[in-house]
Design brief:
mainly alpha; 25 helices; elongated; disordered N terminus
């Protein structure tokens, strides 16, 4: 009988069970019963480790790290054969702690932030490994271009976010898992763990109220209120692994990924040239960034005067566009009410409804078109709305 092996195996039994065993043994148990219980406890510890590993080799890490196992057993890593030793090093087949962590086993223990990035990159850079899962292999390269990566690798700043800060540690989940911190609905809260920390953000000269602004924005209300995971959130604009704040020249491109027509007409405006010269900050100059709100026609009264004198030609042009927008809205609203009342009274209004829908379409087209800042083009649509909602039609 290999007594030393039995003792090593007994070390893998949870501490609570070991204490119970010794207390009971001292008080009541004969030598034969004691030996029987001894082997049963060893068997229980080893069997649990076999369940943990689900491989031919026993993984003894779980013997001491039960809480970690509770997190890891449902993770994407564990489900695909990534176990303790792949990230922490060591020899997981050794029941003796000293042997498991001995020199030559590559034992790291708790990796520091640079090591975390490197460890994750070892697998996630490997095309042969990641190709099977359809996962990109440029995340580490992108991370090094991000503000987080630059601060970590160039400045040695360990307060920045690394892989585990966003994805978690042992409980790594898929982006499709609604409980994962990187699920679209959860991303703003994940980013807010750092970016909502006032003390930390003050040290970088950054605002800490970004999450609150976003939550009350048109984007935030759609994400949290309507659970619309297609709406813009942090990584939609900043990127994920290569996260950087959009520059003046790129803001329009970022917004234009979703707002295609608005971007197209903006490029026809005088503002586009000014943005190229960094004299105008594109979309955010009028709409803001994290706190974007639904824009009403009244916004012209507020937005233009941020940059232009109240008596300038630019403000006068803005007032004309404002009048055309509000005028079309009023005409469509009046026509809708007339058609509704006629329908209630039993009048056959099929033709009028068709005309009204066409007028509403032209009015909606004014939304993106106004970014061209062309009174002439807006006037053409206004004329169309006026004709379609004239009293003779509706």
């Amino acid at each position: 009988m290999d007594i030393s092996r039995i003792i090593r195996d007994f070390q893998c039994v949870p501490a609570r069970l070991r204490r119970m065993f010794f207390s009971f043994a001292v008080a009541h148990v004969s030598g034969v019963v004691l030996l029987t219980i001894f082997f049963l406890l060893i068997s229980a510890g080893v069997n649990r480790n076999l369940t943990f590993a689900q491989t031919k080799a026993v993984n003894f890490c779980i013997s001491c790290h039960q809480e970690t196992w509770n997190d890891a057993k449902t993770s994407a890593h564990f489900q695909h054969g990534v176990y303790c030793q792949h990230c922490h090093g060591g020899d997981a087949s050794q029941p003796d702690q000293k042997l498991a962590k001995a020199a030559g086993t590559g034992y790291l223990g708790i990796p520091d932030k640079k090591q975390i990035v490197s460890i994750c990159g070892d697998c996630h850079n490997n095309i042969e490994q990641m190709n099977f899962y359809g996962i990109r292999t440029d995340q580490l390269a992108l991370y090094k271009t991000s503000m987080h990566g630059k601060k970590l690798f160039k400045d040695g700043d360990t307060h920045v976010a690394v892989c585990s800060d966003c994805h978690g540690y042992h409980e790594i989940g898929s982006v499709r898992d609604s409980n994962s911190p990187i699920y679209p609905l959860n991303i703003p809260k994940t980013c807010n763990k750092c970016h909502g920390n006032k003390t930390l953000m003050d040290s970088y000269g950054l605002p800490s109220d970004t999450f609150e602004l976003y939550k009350n924005s048109v984007h935030g209300k759609a994400l949290f209120g309507k659970k619309d995971i297609s709406v813009a959130q942090c990584v939609s604009c900043h990127g994920d692994h290569g996260a950087v704040p959009p520059g003046v020249k790129s803001i329009g491109v970022v917004c234009g990924k979703c707002h295609v027509n608005e971007q197209k007409y903006f490029m026809e405006s005088v503002h586009a040239d000014l943005a190229g010269e960094k004299k105008f900050s594109g979309c955010v100059s009028c709409h803001g960034n994290h706190g974007v709100q639904h824009i009403t026609s009244n916004y012209y009264k507020e937005a233009c005067v941020k940059c232009h004198n109240k008596t300038s030609d630019a403000v006068k042009e803005g007032k004309k566009i404002f009048q055309l927008l509000t005028g079309s809205e009023a005409r469509v609203a009046t026509a809708e009410n007339l058609v509704k009342q006629a329908g209630i009274k039993g009048v056959f209004v099929q033709d009028e409804v068709a005309l009204l829908n066409e007028a509403r379409t032209s009015m909606i087209e004014m939304g993106p078109l106004q970014h061209a800042l062309s009174v002439e083009k807006i006037s053409e649509l206004y004329k169309k709305v006026s004709e379609l909602t004239a009293e003779g039609y509706c």
